Amino acid sequence: xxxxxxxxxxxxxxxxxxxxxxxxxxxxxxxxxxxxxxxxxxxxxxxxxxxxxxxxxxxxxxxxxxxxxxxxxxxxxxxxxxxxxxxxxxxxxxxxxxxxxxxxxxxxxxxxxxxxxxxxxxxxxxxxxxxxxxxxxxxxxxxxxxxxxxxxxxxxxxxxxxxxxxxxxxxxxxxxxxxxxxxxxxxxxxxxxxxxxxxxxxxxxxxxxxxxxxxxxxxxxxxxxxxxxxxxxxxxxxxxxxxxxxxxxxxx
Length: 252
Description:
Blueprint: H1 6-13, H2 24-27, H3 57-65, H4 68-74, E1 82-87, E2 91-96, E3 102-110, E4 113-122, H5 129-172, H6 186-190, H7 197-222, H8 243-248
Antiparallel strand pairs: 1-2, 2-3, 3-4
């Protein structure tokens, strides 16, 4: 018997499975996409940071050792050698080589440089716990009183200045000074803060006096000379003791 081979050939020509659904492009292997974590291209601006260094108290102490003797000598205290006792944020305590003089020296830092400032002599004290507690309390109270005193002084200064300004205003409003112009008062107003109220009043009277004197002098110069006429009686004779004067003046 003969087998039918046509069906087998037709089956070989037909596409197998889903291969007919893909194009050549679709069959290409996918390309590897760059991983942003490993790309050579820059990913935005890099973070910037600044390192700053600050001198420690030990660094400051070391620099002070090299400067303190010359500094004290320039201040007229160069007969001794000086040792650094304690370093604080804004001042340092030093003592001389005899141990009988102590000084507090203000200082400031400019980069790596130490600049010394004012010198104040201080005194060490050895206290019991009770004495130290009492001293700390007194110091706290003193600082409080000092702060309160400063505020009171500031308030007093404000009150006195307000009172002074009021007195000055009343002084300029007085009737006798009302005729003084801004030109007359120019110099006084420019230097008004230099004068007390009493001195200011004296200055105003000086200006007023000069102004009145100038005005009077101007009026006097404009007046015409007046003639004086003397009436001589008819019976006046030349035997009068004043006849020769009258004749000379053309009056007889």
